[in-house]
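This section describes the prediction task in plain terms. A model, or a person checking by hand, is given the sequence of a single protein chain and must write out its three-dimensional structure as a string of tokens. No templates, partner chains or ligands are provided. The sample shown here is typical of the held-out split.
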Amino acid sequence: MPSLPGILGRVLDAAAEFSASAALSVLREACQQAGFSSDGAELLRIGENAIFQLASAPIVVRIGRSADRLPRVQRELCVARWLAAAKVPAVLVDDEIDQPLMVDGHPVSFWHAVTGGAPTPTHIDLARLLAAYHATPDCPCDLDTFEPLRISESRLAKAEGVDPGDLGFLHGRVADLTSQFEHLEFALPRGPIHGDAHTKNLLTDHGQVVLIDFEAAAIGPREWDLLPTSIAVQRYGLPEEQYQEFAAAYGFDVRTWDGYPVLREIRELTMTTWIMQNVLESKAIAAEFALRVACLRERDYERAWHFF
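The expected answer:
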């Protein structure tokens, strides 16, 4: 495989625009290289990645937004293999393919599709899987030190179709929260974290709930992995009882930690810049971005958000 500097030098500009139609073109070429047919593939989601379910084989294809995501995809593959070796229930890599592939400036990875069906993943499942993940020793992967606001900085630098006033406000929040994060004292030990731990990153495979999506894995505070469930109480209507079950199953209530308000603001800022990337895709996404920015401006921590 070509070196990352060589890849970046040739293709970084080609990945400036990432849309569903552009991702489909990459999918066709990647599948051809891997020996699959892309006919009838279904786009499941587009964000940091475009995720397709193949119709021709029980395979899910993840296409990274740009060439600079290549190290993250390599880490994701490594973490999945590490968890599989440790018997932690997780989605499986298709190891019959030498991957990731690089296609037109996009890193592409191939994963075994899960069967779906019962049981429906719950917040208790998430807590138990996070506890197992956090307890798994000897991670062989070259994980970065957790820097929660670095990715928001990158997204803001590439933002298109966003009001300059909103961009200025978000840049200011990144700077302020970066300073506050540096002074936090954490209650839990540092170590490998999932990085984006919520129930949408759980699936059911042959009757077992499994963890997916390790692209944001890093070495950092375990509190970060507990935030999405606590935020879901206010933003997405998760019943308080379910949150209490989650905290009990994991063994720690992150809301009791003194640094929780700061880390929550950081998490909600990253959630806002994530959806910002697709404001040109639809009016619904643009409206949701505007809602989230308004909440951040007003320090409104109760208004409901919509999950995309």
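For orientation: The beta strands are 42-46, 49-53, 59-64, 101-103, 106-112, 190-193, 202-205, 208-211, 218-221.
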